[in-house]
Structures are given as structure tokens and as C-alpha cells.
Amino acid sequence: MKKFVVKYGGSIQKDEQTRENLLEEIAYFAKSGDKWAVVHGGGSEISHWLARVGHASDFKNGQRITDELTLAVAEMVLGGRVGKSIMRELEKQGAKAVSISGEDHGLLLATPFDQGIYGHVGEVKAIDTSLITLLWDAGYIPVIAPLGVDEERNVYNINADVAAGHIAGALAADMLILATDVPGVKESPDSLYAIPELTVTAAKQMIKDGRAVGGMIPKLESAIQAMDGGVKIVVIASGKEQGLIDQILRGQRIGTRIVQDKEGSVHHA
Ligand SMILES: Nc1ncnc2c1ncn2[C@@H]1O[C@H](COP(=O)(O)OP(=O)(O)OP(=O)(O)O)[C@@H](O)[C@H]1O
Ligand SMILES: [Mg+2]
């Protein structure tokens, strides 16, 4: 029995075909008896609903600056429409799925990230995997919204990549797949091709020297976090790719694979 965590990026949730393909694959592979969990983002949907109430979206280093109203909208959108619609699609594809949030029974225990700058953005302090394993044991695919709570049960908005990296690490998952809207990590946001393999040190360097910006920063941090937690394989790839999961499971080269530093090698991305 293997454990898989897929982060389903908010950037690819709008496209019907992508949505069906990716969730159909997850529903299919979950039938084999392996354990699958989905952590979802919802960036564009949150921005859409914020705009509807006349509120701007503001980001810094790939994190959404979260005031009171933004937190309320994020909670409604992530824990409501986005999570439930992913769950419904998985059910349509024949899987048993339950949509939960990191708030539930303190699954994602959080502390303020940097309140002065980011407001109600949370940093992950601990993961309680008991609800996930309970659902797994009963044959469900947990669909997890990236929200967290502190000990007093205040709510926090947590970047979905960051949440997925911690969850995968805490589960000691065999694989973490970060499915997004680009083919992988590229030398710069506007280059065409994904770097096939990136060591942890090279990934850190890309953040430091500004080749990875915006949403790629928490994605690389998530990958590193997962590797530290003992996740064997981390892949950042395009969720728009038909048969993405099948290709990854067959060991085909797709997207960017994050790997541990190789002893004695010179690192460059
Ligand atoms: N070096 C890089 N290589 C590839 N993409 C990069 C790089 N640096 C920055 N990016 C940006 O990262 C984006 C992906 O992160 P983004 O947060 O936008 O999507 P997501 O994580 O899939 O969605 P959500 O945050 O809603 O879950 C890409 O669309 C690209 O613009
Ligand atoms: Mg993102």
C-alpha cells in the first residue's frame, strides 16, 4: 500500500477538461488500494469572489495578504465551493471522497506567519494526521482545504503548497505531486521548458537569486519540506498534461523532480 498526496492548484481548476482528467486519474488509481489525498488551492476563485465584493487581491512572495474580509472569503471559497466541487467530481468518477479542511479537529495546527505583513496567514506548526488515516481506513479520498487553526481555534489562511508539503511529510507519503499551470520549474518564469531535476540546494538557490518568484516560492519550499519529512518522490508538473499521474507512476520524465543533494556533486540549477 502506497501513500500519495496531490496538490491540485487553483490555477488549473477552471478548465473543465483538466479538472476531469486529473480527478479521473486520482479516482482510478485510488481503486487499486493505494491511499490518495488531495490538497487543493483556490487562488483564482478567491480572487474572483473578492473582486465581486469589491476587494483587491494582494500577494507577497507568493502568499496572499489576508485581512479579515479576505479570510472570510477564503474560508467560504476553499472550504465550500472549491473543496465540495472537487469531492463531487471524484464521486462522479466512482470514488468515495470527503471534503474536509485543515481546520477540522486541528488537522493543520498553525501560528501566525508574519502578522504585520501577511495578516491572517498561517505557518504550519504541526499536522494531526488522524482524520486522514481514519478516512483512508474507511476507503475515502480526503479532499483537504488549506486552512488551519491555532490552539485557541482562530482560523488561518495557509498557502496550499505549504499545506500539502507538510501533510505529505507528516504522512511519510511515497509521493507528492504538485499539479499546477506550468510544465514544471523553469529557469525563469518566462522560459519554455521545465528543469527535469532539481536538488534541494539548487531549489533553495532559485528562490534566493529570484529565478523562482510568486507562486513558485511556496511550491519549492513545500517540496523541500516534504523531502525533509521523508517523502521519497516530489514532482512539480502541469496538471493540464493528459495522463499526468499515469506518466509519473510509470517513471516517465515529466515536470520537475526535486531530489536530495547528491554527495560530492556540484549544484547548479
Ligand atoms: N521559475 C519558475 N518556473 C515556473 N513557474 C514560475 C517560476 N517562477 C514563478 N513561477 C510562477 O508560478 C506560477 C504557479 O504558482 P501559482 O500559485 O500561480 O499556481 P498554483 O499554485 O497552481 O495555484 P494556487 O496557488 O491557487 O493553488 C506559474 O504560473 C508561474 O507564473
Ligand atoms: Mg500557488
Main CATH class: Alpha Beta
Structural class: alpha/beta
Uncertain segments: none
| Counted beta strands | 14
In spatial order, strands of the major sheet run: 5-8-2-1-11-13-14-12
Element string (H = helix, E = strand): EHEHEEHEEHEHEEEHEEHHEHE
Q: List the quaternary state of the chains.
A: single chain
Task: Sum up the overall morphology in one term.
Answer: globular
Structural Rg: 17 Å
Tally of helical segments: 9
- Named at the architecture level, the CATH assignment is 3-Layer(aba) Sandwich
Biggest sheet architecture? 8 strands, mixed
Mean pLDDT: 95
- Spatial gap, N to C terminus: 34 Å
CATH superfamily: Acetylglutamate kinase-like
Question: Structurally, how many domains make up the residues?
Answer: 1
Bound molecules: adenosine-5'-triphosphate, magnesium ion
Describe this structure in words.
The chain is an alpha/beta fold and 269 residues long. The protein has one domain: Acetylglutamate kinase-like (Carbamate kinase), CATH 3.40.1160.10. The protein contains nine helices and 14 strands. An eight-stranded mixed beta sheet has the order 5-8-2-1-11-13-14-12, with helices on both faces. The longest helix has 25 residues. The protein is globular. It starts with a strand and ends in a 10-residue tail after the last strand. The relative contact order is 0.16. The model has no long low-confidence stretch (mean pLDDT 95). The structure holds adenosine-5'-triphosphate and magnesium ion (MG).
